[in-house]
Amino acid sequence: MIAADLANVQVWVATTPVDMRKSFDGLAEVVRSFLGHDPLSGSLFVFRNKGGHLVKILWWDRDGLAIYYKRLERGEFQFPRTGKPVIEISPEQLLRLLSGLNVKASKVA
């Protein structure tokens, strides 16, 4: 993904952990059924595991689904806390989250 693409994309964070064994189809189904969004919308969908040290991002890049997968060697990803199943954060906040820093929700879906 290039920086220009990231500036214009919505970023949705699932607040409930998911099974990191899920791949393209499994994560796309979570986006549809649990988060209530279209996985082919071009938005980024961010998921974490129960332990909080793994993150997967599902993204439709106009040609197909792509997955970004990251593991922190120490600590946990600092996901925003909310009672909603999905929240929106800015692309800048996503970069902070992926660096292990704390972020707050922009919008709640």
Q: What's the story with the biggest beta sheet?
A: 6 strands, mixed
- Helix/strand/pairing class, anyone? alpha+beta
Please give the domain count. 1
End-to-end C-alpha gap: 25 Å
Query: Strands of the largest sheet, in order across it?
Result: 4-3-2-1-5-6
Q: How much strand?
A: 25-35%
The Rg value, from CA coordinates, equals 13 Å
Helical percentage: 10-25%
**General shape:** globular
Can you count the beta strands?
6
Q: Kindly state the mean pLDDT as a whole number?
A: 89
Which spans have pLDDT < 50 for at least 5 consecutive residues?
A: none
| Tally of individual helices | 3
Structural summary, described in words:
With 109 residues, this protein is of the alpha+beta class. Helices cover 23% and strands 27% of the residues. The chain has three helices and six strands; from the N terminus they run αβαββββαβ. It has a six-stranded mixed beta sheet. Strand 2 and strand 3 form a beta hairpin. The model has no long low-confidence stretch (mean pLDDT 89).
